[in-house]
Amino acid sequence: VSSKYLELTKKKLQLTRLPRALDLKDERRWTQGTPKDVLEPILDYWLEHYDWRTQETQFNRSLPQFRTTIQIPSVPAPAQSLKVHFVHKRSKYKDAIPLLFCHSWPSSFIEVHRIIDALTDPHSLPSFGAGAQQSFHVIVPSIPGFGFSDASEREDFGLRETADVFQKVMERLGYQRFVAHGTGWGFGICRALALNHPNSCVAVHTANPSFMEPTFKGSPVAYIKHRIAKLTKAKVPLLSFGYTPDELKQPVTAELDAVIRDLPYSHNLMGTTLRPQTLAFSLCDSPIGLLANLLDITHIRSPQSTQLASRSRSRSRSRSPFLDPGELEMQERSANNEDEIRSAAPTERREVPFGPHESDLDGKGYNWSSTEMLNWTMMQWLPGPEASLRWLQRAHMDTEPSSALSSSFSEVPLGISTFQARNSNSAASTPLMWGSPVWSIAWIKRNQRAATQPAWEAPDLLVLDVRECFGTFLSHGTMANLPFQAS
Q: Domain Epoxide hydrolase N-terminal spans what residues (predicted)?
């Protein structure tokens, strides 16, 4: 990254003017958006301690990166050429399976940072059972307009077009058949691959997916099964049809129901309510505005935000999925973990690649450090967020209920991992069997740890699930002609 651009970023941070904040009670501090008292310490940390060059070196050492030119069809002709950035790390084991990792929004290719070594080398994270020794060649393309991939100039460039580009990257690398993993919008890319390239993308794994509730008109069998399971509360094994009692629980309070309905607000704001170019003018010019936006999205998208409805005084403050530097320092001191604090950045904890963090042990999930949140912000700030905003709007359009991408059935086997929400009254995802009308669901694993970005927040469990899922598919003959070695 150009030093001139980093200097410009620092100048813009120094010139930041923060808005006034309302004096709200703790349980309501996020209702108006990102609180000033959360953002301001991170701004100070960004100016005084955060070092992009250190993070850049870390990513360059752990993630082998390349760029290649991909031709995509264009109307009118001629075809458009895009330089596509990707991570490609090959395993040393002969039975390794090519794994296409599809990152989501607002993340980037660095989402794979914590799991790539354990995926390529199973001995780095021992396990037992199906797929315990399964290894993978890991390929992580950056969506055009994200990271260091060129943005498409096409207004209609969305999930299908991204899947086509990813498919061509795999062909360029010599992988004719492969498996795919993605969560969030990355799962949308996986679905487009499964529907449009089923001979190449032979299996998919995802985490915490969302499906539309089956209707009698769209899928009468699935609709009737859901109604029966709901009527019996999934407590009768023969009549549960894959549903679980927890999936069918109703919100216990009107306040909680209201909060759940408000969760998609940030998605609508970013994807449909505002036109992306209008929003891009402010976010392209203000790094702190982009940070505030990502903090808000991360908070609202996380199921733990339903704690706003909790009536418990002991938990009246809504729990954020990240900590500001002051909060993080206090937490570490209270846990007597002074030896884990970095000497160069006294308020940041040392990276632990696998196993639960200290904040995981209370069952409420992972807390993001300031450095981690700034890394994700930088990966939006560096290329500029305008292309990713256009892509997000198109992805929303591609997944309308009436679209073929939402309603068509895919025979490509799907494996699903679920992770808990931070609040026992909220669900981490929609009922899994809602997906049966549109997917061949072949494997399910329910984890007890809380996570909304599993590759980052629960990397050890996600790696074990990916191995077990695709290992099971291999042992059962579900995936034909794999493992496959690149030419």
A: 1-112
